UniProtKB/TrEMBL annotation:
Protein known as: Probable GTP-binding protein EngB
Cofactor(s) listed: Mg(2+)
PANTHER family: ENGB-TYPE G DOMAIN-CONTAINING PROTEIN, MSS1/TRME-RELATED GTP-BINDING PROTEIN
GO MF annotation list: GTP binding; metal ion binding
EngB-type G domain mapped to chain residues: 22-194
Organism: Clostridium grantii DSM 8605
Presence of the UniProt keyword Cell division in the record: yes
Length: 194
């Protein structure tokens, strides 16, 4: 697949605000700061389509981007950010959960994990949740520009083993900084439309 156009559509807090045109959706989930919004920008070849930040908790709403006029990328708020007040966390948790449980057009979930870190309890819960609801996952080890050559194998093993990744799910490394994994990611996306 090639991404030719990408367009911000809406930041939604509640389901009434989600798009109503029934186009397929690909959602991006992961810890705060994992690199979700950056990945969206990188694969769309846009610098500021999705807002990014070095401070965790940048994306606070559910953002819909229309891709090639055909389907949506859905940028979800990150979870697991310690410095957010509990009330705020509950609000985000509810928002994400509501989207994921009721969303008919949702076809695939991309789960982003910082490749330098062991997946957390939250990551495991998210992965199990994805499987429980019968979705296939694309698991992305992000920020791989920070790994040494010799660390790739260990990182992949750690992510796959900690999540207990099932064989039907895909894994790839990605770097928004170096643009590593863009082609591979777009190929995996093709399969979501088969
Ligand atoms: P939330 O919106 O808080 O959930 O975070 P997010 O997952 O959308 O992360 P975001 O894309 O905003 O990136 C967080 C930070 O990581 C920013 O400072 C980015 O510049 C940095 N970052 C993202 N991708 C990469 C990457 O591939 N390599 C490196 N070195 N840094 C990255
Ligand atoms: Mg974000």
């Amino acid at each position: 697949m090639k991404i030719n156009t990408s367009e911000f559509i809406i930041s939604a807090v509640k389901p009434e605000q989600y798009p109503t045109d029934d186009r397929v959706e690909i959602a991006f989930a992961g810890r705060s700061n994992a690199g979700k919004s950056s990945l969206i920008n990188t694969v769309c070849n846009r610098r500021k389509l999705a807002k990014t930040s070095g401070t965790p908790g940048k994306t606070r709403l559910i953002n819909f981007f229309l891709i090639n006029g055909e389907f949506y990328f859905v940028d979800l708020p990150g979870y697991g950010f310690a410095k957010v007040a509990k009330t705020e966390k509950d609000k985000w948790g509810n928002m994400i959960e509501k989207y994921l449980t009721i969303r008919e057009p949702l076809r695939k979930i991309v789960l982003l994990i910082d490749s330098r870190r062991k997946p957390t309890e939250d990551d495991i819960a998210m992965y199990n949740w994805i499987k429980y609801y019968g979705y296939e996952a694309i698991v992305v080890g992000t920020k791989c520009d920070k790994l040494k050559r010799s660390e790739y194998k260990k990182s992949e093993k750690q992510i796959k083993e900690t999540l207990m990744l099932s064989s039907e799910d895909k894994f790839l490394f990605f770097s928004s900084l170096k643009k590593t994994g863009v082609e591979e990611f777009l190929e995996m996306l093709d399969e979501a439309f088969e």
